[in-house]
Specification:
- This protein starts with a helix and ends with a helix.
- α5 packs across α7 and α7 crosses α8.
- It is globular and about 70 Å long.
- Strands 1, 2, 3, 4, 5, 6 and 7 form a seven-stranded mixed sheet that branches.
- It has about 350 residues and is an alpha+beta fold.
- The protein has eleven helices and seven strands.
- It folds into two domains: about 140 residues, Beta Polymerase, domain 2, CATH 3.30.460; about 120 residues, no CATH class.
């Protein structure tokens, strides 16, 4: 069974990052950006910021308890005469290290970004990935590979908006279900540990590759969320089974870069096997006409929190709440108000 209405509820209550967390993220990014703009060394080079990745694409999900989510933004910078590529992330790191607040937070450098960690709030942590995005004197716009001390791409310019447009078009073709499917699959990866090691941009890309313009002519393909989920995952499975070894994964923005470095053959092989199993389980759950059996099969993937109204799991959860309420001693009005009895 599809459980179409409940899938939307499950997505909202169990998968999506809360609006309050998203609002806090915006505040943090703005504060970091303002601090970097005021830095004596790099402030004059900074010209803007561009949200990047899962954040602007609305693909961030709620992390596991005790976990954290990350958000990327491009730090637009002009080229400084005589600086080599790796100088830019190094100087962004140094600016954080000099700051009175951010120097006390966890921060460091990775190949293409500088990260900044925040203490958990309501048991949810967060870290920012700050990616130097440099406009060269010849007009090219590039990011930095700090490990190799090189610009990326080596020729031409990177175009972050092109990838965003590609994601948005996938969403249009699938009746606004593509991004929901990606979030559900990220939930399987993170909450359920189904295929660890697969980066979000890789998962988004390989799922998006299954969405062609021809799909716009087949409205039933994505008539609701579980149908879109099943069809996209089955098509992904078909594509993976045709590729026993890791294929090249060009950036859909067509800027000359690729995501090949984002995963190894071992990670790919595990992902291929897991998607094959996941697709089969989804098909069994979707085709099962008995509601109870269908829910149990969906729960093999999404866990016990997947409990549509009227299902055994929902009734069990409801009974547990009632039992807890009955067993808890009721306080008197005077106790509740803080007054002595």
């Amino acid at each position: 069974m599809e459980h179409a209405t409940y899938f939307e509820t499950f997505l909202k209550n169990e998968v999506n990052l809360s609006q309050s967390s998203l609002d806090l993220l915006v505040e943090r990014v703005d504060a970091v950006y303002d601090a970097l703009k005021q830095d004596d060394t790099i402030g004059s080079l900074i010209t803007g910021k561009i949200p990047q990745g899962s954040w602007p694409h609305r693909l961030i999900i709620k992390p596991k308890a005790g976990g954290d989510f990350d958000a990327d933004f491009l730090l637009e910078m002009d080229q400084e005469q005589d600086w080599e590529p790796k100088t830019y992330p190094n100087e962004v790191y140094n600016a954080l290290h000099r700051h009175s607040t951010y120097s006390k937070q966890g921060h460091g450098r990775k190949c293409r970004c500088v990260y900044l960690k925040y203490a958990p709030k309501n048991n949810i942590g967060c870290h920012l990935d700050i990616v130097p995005f440099v406009t060269l004197q010849d007009g090219r716009r590039v990011i930095v590979n700090r490990d190799d001390n090189e610009w990326e791409p080596p020729y031409g310019s990177t175009d972050p908006q092109a990838f965003s447009n590609w994601v948005y078009r996938r969403d249009e073709i699938t009746e606004k279900h593509f991004r929901k499917v990606v979030r559900l699959m990220k939930f399987l990866r993170d909450e359920r540990g189904s295929f660890s090691g697969v980066k979000s941009v890789v998962l988004t890309t390989v799922l998006g590759m299954q969405v062609t313009e021809l799909r716009a002519l087949s409205p039933d393909y994505c008539r609701n969320l579980p149908t879109a989920l099943l069809n996209l995952v089955e098509d992904l499975d078909t594509w993976l089974q045709r590729n026993p070894t890791k294929p090249s994964l060009p950036n859909p923005s067509n800027d000359g870069t690729n995501f090949d470095h984002r995963w190894a053959q071992e990670t790919y092989a595990n992902f291929r096997d897991r998607i094959h199993s996941i697709a089969a389980t989804m098909r069994d759950a979707y085709d099962e006409t008995d509601k109870g059996k269908s829910v149990k099969t969906w729960q093999k993937l999404f866990g016990s929190k997947f409990s549509p109204p009227g299902s055994a799991a929902a009734k069990t959860a409801g009974a547990a709440v009632v039992a807890a309420t009955i067993s808890s001693p009721q306080r008197s009005r005077s106790q509740r108000s803080g007054r002595a009895g």
